[in-house]
Automatic annotation (TrEMBL):
<keyword id="KW-1133">Transmembrane helix</keyword>
<protein>
    <submittedName>
        <fullName>LptF/LptG family permease</fullName>
    </submittedName>
</protein>
<feature type="transmembrane region" description="Helical">
    <location>
        <begin position="395"/>
        <end position="414"/>
    </location>
</feature>
<feature type="transmembrane region" description="Helical">
    <location>
        <begin position="368"/>
        <end position="388"/>
    </location>
</feature>
<feature type="transmembrane region" description="Helical">
    <location>
        <begin position="53"/>
        <end position="78"/>
    </location>
</feature>
<keyword id="KW-1003">Cell membrane</keyword>
<keyword id="KW-0472">Membrane</keyword>
<dbReference type="Pfam" id="PF03739">
    <property type="entry name" value="LptF_LptG"/>
</dbReference>
<feature type="transmembrane region" description="Helical">
    <location>
        <begin position="426"/>
        <end position="449"/>
    </location>
</feature>
<dbReference type="InterPro" id="IPR005495">
    <property type="entry name" value="LptG/LptF_permease"/>
</dbReference>
<keyword id="KW-0812">Transmembrane</keyword>
<feature type="transmembrane region" description="Helical">
    <location>
        <begin position="99"/>
        <end position="122"/>
    </location>
</feature>
<feature type="transmembrane region" description="Helical">
    <location>
        <begin position="12"/>
        <end position="33"/>
    </location>
</feature>
Amino acid sequence: MKLLDKYILKSFLIPFLATFFIILFVLVMQAVWQAFDDFAGKGISMVFILKFLWYTMLFVAPQALPIGVLLSSIMTLGSLSENYEFAAAKSAGVSLQRMIRPLVFLAIFLSSINFLFLNYVYPYAILKQLNLRMNIKKKQPALALVPGSFNTEIPDYQIKFDEKYGEEDNLLKNVMIYDLSSKKGNNKIITAKNGELVSEEGSRYMTLILKNGHFFEHHINNQTSYQKRKKMPASYADFDEYTINIDISSFSDDGLDDVKYKSNYNMLSLAQLKDTLPTLKNNYDEFVKTRAKNLLLNVNAEDLHSVADSLKNDKISAPILDNFDDTDKRNILNAAVAKVDRTLNNIQSNKDSFKHKRKVLNLYDIEFYNRVAFSLSCLLLFFIGAPLGSIIRKGGMGLPMIFAIAIYVTYFFSNTFGRNLAEESSLTAITGAWLAMAIMSPLAIFLTIRAAQDKGMVNLNGILSNIKNFFKNTFSKKEKTL
């Protein structure tokens, strides 16, 4: 390797490593801050917190790598131009293309590393981090309870409430509880206007204090016949305060490494996504085909057929209803309206299922194409940052940082925008995944051409000169006419 190549690589790698680790630290802290409520104050050992940080660092690393390449390329090329090192090299007959050739190979290598990370390390990190986060969240089941739906995290109980409030989010409003501890179904139901969750650190019990409620229990003996069980007595009562002690000893550190969530779209490698997508598409097509067939049967569309001319009855009027009396017309119209209402209700009830299944399929499809597109972001952003640095001729962390943030925000917004459109089926998956590349590639080509020709981004002197000549020629013609 020539001395010049070593110098260029050294000038690039020093700011690259510095910016990469700084950005990685910021992204990890951001992720930790978002998950802070899930494990703060739960008595989690430092080992599991370090594991969480490690997995978080692994899955945010592919995001930090393109930013590091972009910022360090602007800083390196800007510093070399600012110190007239490029000018010295050009005077010695070394072109810009030859000078940045080792950096191009390095950018290709980093893109390959990013692809391998996205394909193998990223799914593993997501798998472990998500499962660890969910297991940590269940260390205190009170914090895992979600308003508006039945919560099944607490063993032997299903709890539903409208709102969770208070300084510690331990006060509940409009509580409904199914007590399943008897293993006989939901025969014991408790409702209350208010509730309070009380748990002490290290205790194996969580206390639920209910106020102003109603208690109902249907006494059932499973050994009796169904007819006799229907006649079994039930007990019910109103209460001012009712206390339930729930055993939560199963929520311990022993289960924090358990893996229960395995099939999310971002937990699969490209090979696994490729194997999963055909099955999902076949299931979705079968679902659509089944619903379409049911709709066809409900409206009796197969009974509508054309009649041969020789079989036409001239006594029958073309408007079908004119062939019936008023009573029959009313009955026919009522039956038609009822059938249309049933069909519309059926379509409306299936609408959410259609959207959900299509959205799940889109997520897997987008993830497959986005893995490849995002891995090339290092190469794309290098061909934006390197020529931009040689054009602006500024090194350091000032102006290059501003340009890097603006460019990456544009790239990230375009990528997110494309994925969201593809997720809602407004764009195809491949279009949504590659939208950011399609938007930013012309900028990379333009800047590379301008830098290779040793020109600025915009030739302001040329534009001002053309405007000046235009007005000069215009006024000179008027003077000659006068």
